[in-house]
Design brief:
Length: 299
């Protein structure tokens, strides 16, 4: 059954001596707000970690398969959808090729059925939505769960380090170094940063995709544990430090999201924070609005 409540949530996570989200257009430097120096982590990066966690826990078995996988070919899944709904003939190109484009797009009824099939079988489609209209057309889905960029509580400084590998990749490199065989590289880290992202869950959109209570529980589990299974030398130490969920009694909502987010405040306790202990998190303030329940899933 689709969910019947609106949810808004605050996600707090931190990084220590790592790069939480490198920018490939800037030499993989940690993403920064150029005006304020605050660190940024994209919503795409956070969704990737949720996808990876769900794929690991559910072994990519349907109905919890993952649509956007590493090295995936999305059109193969679109074609599978048409096969499963019995509309494979709509994708067969004419011999003369005159109606090939039309037959790749499918009929209106087939697109609808294919979209529903994708929602039923892929967790990330019914959660985050997807544009599946390129190539073989499976329509577009607007997901009930949306995330913002994460922003650090205070400005961060990206530190650059020289690193050495005691080996080279080719014989030619070895000859040029006369057997010294060293490879120099660069590594970028943030000494410490506490990041905050906001999220929204719409019950109205959940009805359209079939996002249900089990999916919601899996989402909360993912946000709480996704960094525990995403370790790498580049990312340093990353941990979820707080997941504060505001559950509304009604589908439309009992309070504005921004007013609820303002109830979660972080206070810096040290001039130069280097751990989560250098912050205090206050939640609640004067009290929750009527019809809103606070669930502290982490923190």
């Amino acid at each position: 059954m689709p969910i019947s409540n609106r949810y808004d949530f605050v996600l707090l996570f931190d990084v220590k001596d790592g790069n939480p989200n490198g920018d490939p257009d800037a030499g993989n430097l940690p993403r920064l707000d150029a005006e304020t120096g605050h660190g940024l982590v994209t919503d795409v990066s956070l969704k990737r970690k949720v996808r990876n966690f769900v794929g690991m826990v559910k072994d990519c078995q349907r109905p919890y398969d993952i649509y956007v996988k590493e090295k995936g070919v999305l059109e193969r899944l679109h074609r599978e959808a048409y096969k499963e709904i019995g509309a494979s003939d709509e994708l067969a190109d004419d011999k003369d090729g005159k109606d090939a484009k039309k037959k790749r797009k499918g009929s209106e009824d087939s697109v609808r059925k294919a979209r529903d099939w994708m929602c039923q079988n892929f967790f990330d489609v019914r959660t985050f939505g997807a544009v599946m209209s390129t190539g073989v057309n499976c329509g577009q889905v607007r997901g009930p769960v949306q995330l913002t960029f994460a922003r650090s509580a205070d400005p961060v400084i990206a530190t650059e380090h020289s690193i050495t590998r005691m080996a080279v990749a080719t014989e030619a490199e070895s000859e040029r170094q006369e057997g010294d065989n060293r490879t120099m590289g660069r590594k970028h880290t943030v000494p410490y940063g506490l990041y905050r992202a906001h999220g929204f869950v719409s019950s109205f959109l959940a009805k359209q995709t079939g996002f249900g209570e089990e999916d919601l529980a899996l989402l909360w589990q993912s946000l709480g544990s996704m960094f525990e299974h995403d370790r790498s030398a580049a990312r340093g130490e990353m941990s979820t430090r707080g997941l504060y969920v505001f559950k509304h009694q009604s589908e439309l909502g009992n309070a504005h999201a921004h007013a609820l987010f303002d109830m979660v405040k972080t206070h810096r306790l040290a001039d130069v924070p280097r751990s989560f202990a250098d912050y205090r998190v206050d939640v609640g303030g004067a009290g929750l609005p009527a019809g809103v329940e606070l669930q502290r899933l982490v923190g």
